[in-house]
Amino acid sequence: MELLPQEILVSLSLRLSLSSQIEDIMNEFPHGAHHEPHILRFPHSAPTAPPEPRNTAPEPEPVNRTVLVFSPRPGARQLLADDVRKRGMQVCETDSPDAMLFHLSRQEFCCCIIDDADSVSRIQEVNAAIRAHSRAAQVLCIVSEDSRWGRETVPSFDCDVIERPYSASRFGAALLNALRRGELVRENEKLRRQLLNRNLMDLVGSTPAMQSLRESIRIAADDDRTVLVRGEPGSGTTLVAEGLHRCSRRAGRPFLRIDCSLHSVETLEHQLFGDAAPDGFPGYLKMGEGGSILLDNVDTVALPFQKRLAQLLEQRAAAVLNGTQDGPNIRFIAATHGDLNRLAMESRFRDDLLQHLSGITLQSPPLRVRTNDIPLLVEHFISQISLKEGRPPRQISSESLQLLESHAWPGNVRELQNVIERCCTVDADECINPEDLRPWLSHDAIEDGAECVGMTLAEMERKLIESTFARCNGNREKTAQILQIGLRTLSGKLREYGYPPRGGPGSNVRRPQIVAFGGERKAA
């Protein structure tokens, strides 16, 4: 379609007008400038800088840089002290062995410099005093050129020896090596403590009694002598023995437990020594080669076998002392809930066996002396139950914790664990309240078992069922769940004991039994 001349003129005038407007707009701004559209923005505060991240890394432990300098000669002592101070360390000077032992008993040093070491007759005592505070402290001995040190006199501990005359660089290098060695030992001790805490996770608690027990286990783990673990029933003597094994260098070898209270003389001997036949039972002494054997309830070992056991421990002690392999390569750990000293005085326990067992003694504290650990123990048991049940852990109220802390706990940690497990088994609530705990905290608990002595098995079964039924307030489902028996089995037992059928009136109350005497019926 062709445009008319008049329409062409109109179209050209419109294009020229539009081009002129665009050119005017572009001329208002410099060439190449960037312009944002005019947009009305809501008022807002100026953007604040993000907070600087806090340094959450643990602060490094302060490094001990105090050096003890001993020299009987004032001039030499002053030169040594000045040389140490030039290297940025603090110095404590002493001029006599007695003063050196006094300072070592009061303070920890990173290094101990002993001048004229061959004149110190009590060098072993000095080393013992140093090791009493820290294993990381190093000893640097300075001897004369014609000294017999290192030839006829050999120290029984690790130390650096410098012979006179020596240069300043030689002394500085020896001091620097001693400090670096001390740092490595200190770092090793730190890692060992972390590993120890991991190996002793079952020993829950942060009270001084538990901290002292862990430290005693750490010290006993480095020794290979027989250990006696003492404690009240339920205080965790078996856990202490297992933790001792895991912290020792025998951790990768077997840990075997023998409950001496369950064995006679013949079965206990068979359990330890096995059969004489090659294809028979090898015995724990061969099965636990390189590991540890726990003799639990060692106070119940019969007197005829105590002599054999004492000879075995004596053979093992002689092998440890002489560094030979004559005896069995096994560490023996004994556990007892009784007083072995009293049993020995009553001639019920051999003195020689007691002597072999008492080389190292660990005491497991009862729960009543560490009640502040009860919240941690409760949290630990609830976490174990939640993992076992596959459900979120339950909560416990502060009133319930106060009730638990005020209890005497004659059964110690085992009784606390049983109470928590029963509450979590019976009650499905998300929070444990005091009302859930009180039925299980009576003083005549089943754990005591004192009044069960002399009862028949049927009488003990009836007492257990009836007491549990009463604690559950007549709830048969909860009673069967706690006793881990079927509901029909429980109902049959209760019907046998004189309780009405389930669902009937008074089904949680035992009916009086009618006993006939001389033709008359009387209520029992």
Could you characterize the architecture of this molecule?
With 524 residues, this protein is of the alpha/beta class. Helices cover 45% and strands 12% of the residues. The protein has 19 helices and 14 strands. The protein has a five-stranded parallel beta sheet with strand order 2-1-3-4-5. Strand 13 (514-517) and strand 14 (520-523) form a beta hairpin. Helix 17 (457-471) packs across helix 18 (476-483) and helix 18 (476-483) packs across helix 19 (487-496). The longest helix has 32 residues, at 168-199. The protein is elongated, with a radius of gyration of 40 Å. The chain starts with a helix and ends with a strand.
Highlighted features:
524 residues, alpha/beta
Indicate the overall shape.
elongated
Name the structural class.
Answer: alpha/beta
Q: Give the rounded overall mean pLDDT.
A: 78
- Widest beta sheet: strand line-up: 2-1-3-4-5
Low-confidence stretches: 28-47, 443-450, 511-524
Largest sheet: 5 strands, parallel
